[in-house]
Each structure stands twice: as structure tokens, then as C-alpha cells.
């Protein structure tokens, strides 16, 4: 018979220092954890990523933005040239009846 054990981790602050504690079968092991303010590229990436909203909200915002931008491009008459075929391509209004049909199918 094998005994299953679990490690429980928690933080303890003693005299303005933070310690990472692990409880394993009534034994306490403390390791010093740095509390210095971090700087650098990865710190910036982490803070920026934490400031972003939920991915589903981002997806919905970009989808609505695409619909609005397609409508603006259609009414302004934006056109481009397909580099593969050389033919002229016009913007399509995705909020119109034909545009909704194009999205669904």
C-alpha cells in the first residue's frame, strides 16, 4: 500500500521578508523569496499581459472592429490589387444582408 502525500505551498511574511513555505507531513521548509521590484523585458511582458482583458472579450472586440472597418471601407470605396492575380478587389460591407450571408456561409 502506497501513501499519497500532498505538498501545500503558501507565503509567509516575517519582518518585511517573504518566505515560500511548504508543508510536507508536518515538516516546514522555508526558502527565501526575493521581493525586489523586477525590471526588464519579461517584467514588461508579464505586466502588459496581465492588463489585457479575457481572450473571449478580445475576440469579440476584434470581430466587431472588423465589421465596422469593413463598413467604413465599403462606403469610402477602398480598393486594392490582388498580388497573385493582379485583379482589382473592392471592400465588402459585412454588416449588409449579403455580408452576413458571406460570414455565415
Structure description:
The chain is of the alpha+beta class. The chain has 2 domains: 1-35, no CATH class; 53-104, no CATH class. Helix content is 39%, strand content 27%. The chain contains 3 helices and 5 strands; from the N terminus they run βββααββα. It has helices at 41-51, 55-76, 97-104, and strands at residues 8-14, 17-24, 27-33, 79-81, 88-90. It has a 3-stranded antiparallel beta sheet, with no helix packed on it. Strand 1 (8-14) and strand 2 (17-24) form a beta hairpin. The longest helix is centred in the middle third of the chain and has 22 residues, at 55-76. The protein is elongated. Mean pLDDT is 79; it is low at 22-29.
Amino acid at each position: 500500500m502506497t501513501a499519497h502525500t500532498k505538498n501545500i505551498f503558501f507565503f509567509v511574511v516575517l519582518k518585511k521578508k517573504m518566505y515560500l513555505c511548504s508543508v510536507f507531513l508536518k515538516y516546514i521548509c522555508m526558502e527565501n523569496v526575493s521581493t525586489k521590484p523586477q525590471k526588464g523585458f519579461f517584467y514588461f511582458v508579464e505586466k502588459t499581459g496581465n492588463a489585457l482583458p479575457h481572450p473571449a472579450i478580445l475576440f469579440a472586440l476584434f470581430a466587431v472592429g472588423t465589421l465596422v472597418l469593413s463598413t467604413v471601407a465599403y462606403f469610402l470605396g477602398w480598393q486594392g490589387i490582388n498580388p497573385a492575380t493582379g485583379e482589382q478587389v473592392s471592400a465588402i460591407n459585412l454588416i449588409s444582408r449579403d455580408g452576413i450571408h458571406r460570414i455565415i456561409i
